Amino acid sequence: MPDYSSWDLPALHKEIKKYGYRLSKEKAVVVEQLERVWLAIHPEAVVVEEAVVVEKKKRAPRKKKVVESGSEEETVGEKLRKVIVGNEKMYSRVLRYEPIFFDEIHALATSSGLKAAKPVMLRCLDEMCVTVYTQSPTNGTRARYR
Fold first, then answer.
1. pLDDT tens digits, residue range 45-70?
2. What is the DSSP string of 68-95?
3. Rounded to an integer, what is the distance from CA 50 to the centroid of its chain?
4. Contact 55, 46 (CB under 8 A)
5. CB atoms within 10 A of CB 124
6. Which value, in Å, is the radius of gyration of the alpha carbons in the chain?
7. N or C: the chain end with fewer CB closer than 10 Å?
């Protein structure tokens, strides 16, 4: 973190203006604001007794849902991909980036023996970059109030 307390007031005003703060006549207020801004911009840095230590947080990898089909195990995404590629009309719509009604894909998957929750299927389709919509645009449940 820069040592803002050693800067002169005009330099502090110039720096704080970059972030949209109002100018203050008190140097301590401006220094505190700049320190907060620096910590917000650098969230992985932790200040420890005037020394800056950078720590990176590691996320635990997400577990994928596994569906058993025969002797081999496949994730829901892999199984869903095979179902879509196996249906020529559906696959051509996916390749043309046509929005597909989610219930069509869900019905195709369930008729092929894939059992998965709708949110899991939506996440898999999103990861595969398949464009879907969840409500029929012509007969939606939303009504116009007058």
1. 765 545 555 555 666 666 665 555 55
2. EETTEEEEHHHHHHHHHHHSHHHHHHHH
3. 34
4. yes
5. 21
6. 27
7. C
